[in-house]
């Protein structure tokens, strides 16, 4: 008798949980990486270009080529370059503006010698990517 009541209670619990489940409507699902009215799934790719070596006190150029689905992105939501020291501590975060053909460029002057990491933080199409490269400053 107790087993029958336990089984009935478990069955009722499972039925209540099933009734509270999400109603999935795949036609209007928001994938988060699509533009409104755009049926194409977007990708976000960034080719980060920084010099392998630089001289302390000289200006270095950092460039992020932002593209999606084979096309240049000229209207990214945000493109920023972050410079970290050898210990991983953030030294600077600089926002870049679009110059041409999906290129976002800044100039930066390293004050000290050492090994540094440059990370480009790029936001577009509700996506975020952050490729990084190393720079040795002599």
Keywords:
single chain, 138 residues, mainly beta, Immunoglobulin-like, 6-stranded mixed β-sheet, 5-stranded antiparallel β-sheet
Give an overview in words.
The structure is a single chain. 13% of the residues lie in helices and 45% in strands. The protein has a domain at 45-137: Macroglobulin (MG2) domain (Immunoglobulin-like). It has one helix spanning 2-19; strands spanning 45-49, 53-54, 59-68, 71-72, 78-84, 90-95, 98-100, 103-109, 114-124, 127-129, 132-137. The chain has 138 residues and is mainly beta. Strands 2, 5, 6, 9, 10 and 11 form a 6-stranded mixed β-sheet that branches. The chain has 1 helix and 11 strands, in the order αβββββββββββ. InterPro entries: Filamin/ABP280_repeat-like, Ig-like_fold, YtkA-like_dom. Pfam families: YtkA (PF13115). Keywords: Signal. Residues 1-21 form the signal peptide.
């Amino acid at each position: 008798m107790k087993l029958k009541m336990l089984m009935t209670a478990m069955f009722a619990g499972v039925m209540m949980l099933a009734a509270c489940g999400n109603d999935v409507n795949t036609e209007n699902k928001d994938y988060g990486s699509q533009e409104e009215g755009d049926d194409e799934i977007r990708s976000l790719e960034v080719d980060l270009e920084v010099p392998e070596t630089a001289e302390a006190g000289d200006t270095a150029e950092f460039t992020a080529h932002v593209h999606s689905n084979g096309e240049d992105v000229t209207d990214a939501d945000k493109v920023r370059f972050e410079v970290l020291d050898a210990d991983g501590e953030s030294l600077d975060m600089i926002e870049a503006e679009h110059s041409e053909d999906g290129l976002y460029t800044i100039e930066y002057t390293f004050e000290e010698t050492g090994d540094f990491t440059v990370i480009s933080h790029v936001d577009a199409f509700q996506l975020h990517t952050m490729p990084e490269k190393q720079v040795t400053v002599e």
